[in-house]
Design brief:
Blueprint (H helix, E strand, L loop, with lengths): L23 H4 L3 H9 L22 H10 L6 H11 L6 H13 L3 E7 L8 H13 L5 E7 L9 H15 L3 E7 H4 L6 H13 L4 E2 L2 H10 L10 E3 L6
Parallel strand pairs: 1-2, 2-3, 4-5
Antiparallel strand pairs: 3-5
Helix pairs in contact: 6-7, 7-10
């Protein structure tokens, strides 16, 4: 049997649903695609939740979709594996985490936690941060500083205040930890090699340089007043009595 070349072609933004109203894909003029669809065998793929290795009901995304298509099987994502580790207790015994915790205790230093503060589930999940705080408390660490990266891309652009409240409530409940800096992911998570962006986040985190506010909520409120949404929050430092 003669072998023919096979191409895996991904059309970003394409999806299938029966309704035509409000359906840009269905209403677009695309004669070649329509011919392929009508004349050749085809099927649909589920692109979210357990079908792509995410928690049930979790929206899929570009990275997850590409990974599963490329592998040709379900690839369980880090989100799912970390959730499971938290539930079954493996999280607290993770060698890498315990190594970091022990280093902090042996040197009388502080634990700094960096991460995207949302439940978007693409690059992070707030529940994992909350679990880290609880674990740090259980390990006897009393100085925990959190550098919160605001999302606004994988979740609502103005969901920041609710995530900050969730974090602050957990810190109060556990009795350890405080938010040290707040930055939009546009700066703290740039992946286009734009150092001028990353430097603003770095300077806030490493040198306490940048706009100063007395609370994380004040940072967000000031940003919204300037029509700046979560993703683009200028890296800012939280101070008490004028000191970071």
């Amino acid at each position: 049997m003669a072998k023919s070349p096979v191409a895996s072609i991904i059309l970003d933004g394409f999806g299938w649903r029966p309704e035509v109203e409000g359906n840009a894909v269905a209403q677009a003029k695309k004669p070649n695609f329509d011919r392929y669809y009508n004349e050749f065998p085809h099927t649909t793929l589920k692109a979210s939740g357990l079908d792509v290795g995410l928690p049930d009901g979790q929206m899929g995304n570009s990275e997850v979709g590409h990974t599963n298509i490329g592998a040709g099987r379900i690839v369980y994502q880090s989100l799912t594996r970390i959730d499971k580790a938290i539930l079954d207790g493996e999280f607290e015994s993770n060698p890498a985490l315990n190594g970091a915790f022990n280093h902090v205790k042996e040197n009388g230093s502080a634990l700094h936690l960096f991460g995207l503060l949302s439940d978007g589930g693409v690059h992070s999940h707030i529940n994992h941060l909350l679990a880290l705080v609880e674990t740090a408390k259980a390990k006897g660490i009393d100085k925990v500083y959190i550098h919160a990266f605001m999302d606004g891309r994988d979740v609502d652009p103005k969901a920041g205040p609710s995530y900050i409240k969730t974090l602050e409530d957990k810190l109060a409940e556990v009795g350890v930890g405080e938010i040290a800096t707040v930055s939009g992911r546009y700066y703290a998570m740039d992946r286009d090699k734009r150092w001028e962006r990353v430097k603003l986040a770095y300077d806030a985190i490493a040198h306490s340089e940048g706009p100063q506010f007395e609370s994380a909520q004040a940072v967000i409120a000031d940003s919204y007043a300037k029509d700046v949404t979560d993703e683009f929050v200028i890296p800012s430092v939280i101070v008490k009595d004028g000191k970071p």
